[in-house]
Amino acid sequence: MPFELIAPAPGRTALRSYIETAPGEGEALVRTEFSACKHGTEAHLFHGHAPGGDRRYDPEQRLFVPRDQPAPGFPIQLGNMFVGRVEAVGPGVSSLSVGQRVYGWSGSRDSHTLPVARFHPMPDGLTPEQAVCLDPAEFALDAVRAAGVRLGDRAAVFGLGAIGLLAVQMLSLCGTSLVAAIDPVPSRRDLSLRLGAHVALDPRHHDVGLELRSLTQGNGLDVALEYSGAPAALQAAIRSVGYAGTVAVGAWCGPSSPVLQLGEEFHMNRTRIISTRACSIPVEEEPRWSYVRLRETARDLFIAGKLDAESLVTPIVPFDQAADAYARIDSEPERFLKLGFRHGS
After folding, report:
1. 3-class DSSP state for residue 106?
2. Given pLDDT bands bounded at 50, 70 and 90, which one contains residue 12?
3. Domain shared by 182 and 92, yes or no
């Protein structure tokens, strides 16, 4: 019997059995081989915090407005991306064939019966670990481009989850003269140094803004990327950039965030704060840079060996241990960077 990973209630995990359905018109059934979670984004939902709380995003007005009805409740599905093989196709499907390996975006479960447009053929040279890192890579790439990073710039990444560590690697590829990595978890700081950061700082023991000013002869950074979701980190990022520097904010700040203080450095230094989110289309560079081009560029960087995904997908556990492992993400940040699951073993 197939299983899927769910949160039956806030902060709780379980594997739930489900009835597998045969593919219908325009659909395919894919048997999962590998899947992974997206800790930061899922954490808000996992702990019962719907994005916007009692408000919802109105795409026509591009504005959060009061919800007409309560936010969707529990249980919720957990997981973000998967890799698998096509087991069956429905009537009218010619773009996929049985036995073909594909990847896609969906929760962690043993199989997926979805419209064929939801599945993407696995290109030669792309590993399962790389495939499930395409989502964070898209967001990191969008942040680096949106911030306008240039050759010789000094930059920092606040928050060393999967997106942050991919951003560290991309900043290094851009030819930045300084890449600083900031996170309270020692193992993540150590990994950032192996992946291209020049310096890694613990925000619990450093005045990060002051330290980065010292490292730049008092000038400050050109760019700071904020991927922790912590208001204190955003404040430190503002302090770290130089006059008219750019802070690109990619993390979602949770409902407990206090009002951001926009006096002091922000006011005096004319800091530029921008929002970055890969899947908000159109982007500034449309039509030259579409969402498809962003995704394909991230994919090609992995295939070319210019980005390390294998170091990020850790730990990897059998899927029958998924509920127990997921429940320990918050309490064991040293161990859990991007949790992966092997299915069918």
Report:
1. coil
2. very high
3. no
